[in-house]
Amino acid sequence: MGCAALTLKQQKSQKAKERRARYDPEGRVMDAEFWQLQRQYNRCPCCGKSWHQAGLVARDHIIPVSRGGPNQALNLQPLCQACNLWKLDAVIHFDPAFPGRPAALPARLHEIAERLGLLAEPELEAEQLSFGPIGSPPVWNYPAATPQQLEQQTLILTRQARDLPL
Question: What CA–CA distance (Å, rounded) separates 153 from 71?
Fold first, then answer.
């Protein structure tokens, strides 16, 4: 690796470190909280790889910080590094029991999603009409679906869960 490449790598590393520090300036998400959360998942809930196969484990914000989500343990799910990069800034909660399948946002995030306007009823899109029986939401899974499709499915499931009587 040349001197210029090493300098570029160091600059990228420093920028990433600064970006992570902005997400958690007060240290609200402690390592112990995250590792306790990860113990609830025996594999990546997106791709289904075991943590041993997946390698690096990323702290994924279900509602991304860039879209107004809180940087707290209640808004985290563990994903392998590759899946976290694939998800980008989409609002996707993966079902821990069925890897790759989106699930409704946990109830603890409903108020935040409502406040951010994520649960407003969208207009019916033509893409929605091409999946499943009439009147049922489409069912998409990773890796065949895009992050946007899985986000849409997560929000549909969340609206349905929110509207169910207690």
Answer: 23
Verify cis geometry, omega within 30 degrees of 0, for the bond prior to 143.
Answer: yes
AA letter at 133: P
Question: Across the strands, what pairs with 76?
Answer: 61
- Per-residue pLDDT tens over the stretch 123-166: 544 444 344 445 555 568 999 999 999 999 999 999 999 886 65
The answer to pTM > 0.85 is no
Number of Cα atoms under 13 Å in the Cβ half of residue 135: 0
What value does the mean pLDDT take over residues 103-121? 94
Nearest-5° Cα angle at 105, 102 to 109: 155
At 9, the amino acid letter reads K
Q: b/e for 3-22, b at 16 or more Cβ within 10 A?
A: eeeeeeeeeeeeeeeeeeee
Residue 57 pairs in a beta bridge with 80
